[in-house]
Amino acid sequence: MKKIISYLVFSTMLFVSFTSCEDLNVENINQADRERALAEDSDVISLLDGATTNVFAHIIGFSGIYMDNLADQSTTTNAYVSFWSFANQPREQINNSPTNADLGNHVGNSWGSLNSYINSANTIITLIEIDGKQLFNEGVDVTNQKLSAAYFVKGLAQGYLSLIYDKAFIVNPDTDLSALEFSTYQEVMAASITNLEKSVQLAGNSATLRLHDSYTLPNALYKQVANSFMAKITIGNARTKAEAANTDKAKVLAYVNAGITADFTPPTKQSVLFNNLQDWRTFFISGQGYLPTDIKVMHFLDSNYPVDYPTDPNIILDPVQSNDPRVDYFEYNSAFGFLRESRGRYLFTNYFNVRKFSGNNRNVEGIPLDIFTLAELQYIKAEVSSPADAAAILDASPRGTVGNITTPGTATEVEKALLYEYSVELDLNASIGTHWFYMRRNDMLQEGTPLHYPIPASELEIIGEEFYTFGGTANIGSEGTASGANSWKNF
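^ thats the sequence. predicted structure below, dont judge the formating
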């Protein structure tokens, strides 16, 4: 069978081509190219360091815009690169067509990038574990440290593939690419956790992780961050509430307890690593945010607020009334900016996130990256705890310490509290997809919302498989599309 796997190469993008079994007999020029490109230890270290920076950049990057729209964290009627299609309601089916000019911005973005980082990690793993290469940096043996980092990059990238797509490839140094098949998101998650656990094991008591050339995670923090992501990936993998009931809560709790003890917010390295999701979603223009805060967030701050903006053109909502001081995370404006009435006034809002606003530019040296907050880890812990314990955890989190809200210790109240906290406290204060992942595993997404992305049609076209997609009103409740059974609009 014809196999062309477009993202498997020995470079920053993956590319291996098979047109028939006979093709496997040709000279492997990739091997020679790899040896020339990675002739020096500094070349190998540079490849890995670049992949490490880039995987972190991706999980706080541009592709999160679409996921925030799907989770009703942000709203828009702006059709630029299909933003509107992911915010519109009733929910639209993802346009997974190779002729869709925007495919590379949404469905294709994470696929290409995350697979490329996995390939870079595999290159390092191959050099060290199979070829027996030792790596030295200024005379110091860093072989084990870089091997640990390679497994971390691979595990983190696989984890986000498992969270975002319905299936993906699991590629290891010894994988027979001619027989490569897709694995389920559960299988990809398991591979992710295995690799992240191995990165922690290899880190021992000395390995560090270079984020960029101005910031390196010390050993203890490195392992805490890895454990925190293992908790997030494990709990976030479920697509429905029924599936989430089978999550290994004890395992998640163990990762949480070995996780971060303070916010993981390393500093921006200008033009190298910055929070591009925040940069887009806090951009302010024409009297309103370019990708403003959805009315959902304001509804939770003020239960008298509607769940859809009034369609009467004469109505402009007043500011919310809330006893939660965190209402000041958001700024009210009577202007609607880029929001177009002709594309659905029900999508309108009067708010944008001012908490992370920094003069229309987050690509500024030293600004916190907001990759993983302690609050998010507390909310994950609450989710896998008994209602009584969860209430105590929530009271010790920003919900109680900043919002001055006490949570009753019942399952229903804890569920409401967690949705509130994800919507308010974690808005632009977590990595991409956090709200989408949380809401889908609790059936809180609007009906018709995609639960995951399909493999990009551009990839399916190359490997000769049929196109498919998720989402839309015609597919409500079917595999990969939200039923809306516990929609946030009913809270």
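The chain has 18 helices and twelve strands.
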